[in-house]
Amino acid sequence: MSLLKTKLIHVELAGEYLPLYVAADLEALVEDPADPDQVPCWAEAWPAARGLASYFLQGSPLEGKTVLELGAGVGLPGVACGLQNAAVTFSDFQQRALKICDANARLHRLERYRLLLADWRDFKCRERFDLVLASDIAYEPRLLPSLKAVLLAVSKPGGSIYFSHPGRPVTFAFIEELLADAFFHEERFVIPVTVPDDPVRTTYEIIIHRLQRSLPADLTR
After folding, report:
1. Residue 175 and residue 137: Cα distance in Å, rounded?
2. Spatial CA neighbour of 165 closest among 111, 206, 115, 218
3. What CATH number is attached to the domain comprising 47?
4. Rounded CA gap, 49 and 29, in Å?
5. Contact at 8 Å (CB) between 26 and 100?
6. What pLDDT digit, counting tens, does each position of 128-171 carry?
């Protein structure tokens, strides 16, 4: 396993700049390009993560709420929730990703957070959470059945799942499947994101889906 080196960047969120550790050299982290599990998608702050973090930083405090970030990567949306006083669990199947999450949580002096090493294909966590964050993680068809099972297992009745993505058709389709198979109420938002150093494009319209899970009928009477 290659040595993990990080660098400090400043991410523009809701008109302010948030310091964040990311991997210093993505190419150095690639050990087997043929293995999709080894592609270091976890190692930087993607536009969808920036959009979801902005959404929470502009929202109401989350005091008393529990948050699970799936596929946390560098943990930007989870950090944003922690800054809003939530208790955050950063989850990823890459140990190196959790090291960066830990560094970012410490950087922002989060008091209530933990790290969970877990693979969706064999997810052992049985806890349920008020908020589940899924920032641009629903795009790999081979993993979507496992992701769906995890989402249904860890989201509380009455709780919410938050998806963010830059308009991926596969993510739209996955969310429609969830809506068809479970009792969710959906809201959608669009958050503009600027990434000045992005080599492809510098502005994005990030789509956020909030899926609130219905309470059992006997609890709503």
Report:
1. 12
2. 206
3. 3.40.50.150
4. 20
5. no
6. 999 999 999 999 999 999 999 999 999 999 999 999 999 999 99
Position 51, amino acid = G
Residue 33 CA from chain centroid, whole number: 24
Q: 163 - beta bridge partners?
A: 134, 209
Q: Which two tokens stand for residue 139?
A: 């795009």
* Residues lower than pLDDT 70 in the chain: 1-3, 26-40, 216-221
In sequence order, what are the beta bridge partners of 132?
68, 161
Q: Which residues are paired to 134 by β-bridges? A: 70, 163
CB atoms within 10 A of CB 50: 27
**3-state SS, one letter per residue, for 42-95:** HHCCCHHHHHHHHHHHCCCCCCCCEEEEECCCCCHHHHHHHHCCCEEEEEECCH
- Say if 97 falls within a structural domain: yes
Q: What pTM, to 2 d.p., does this model score?
A: 0.92
**Within-domain flag for 95:** yes
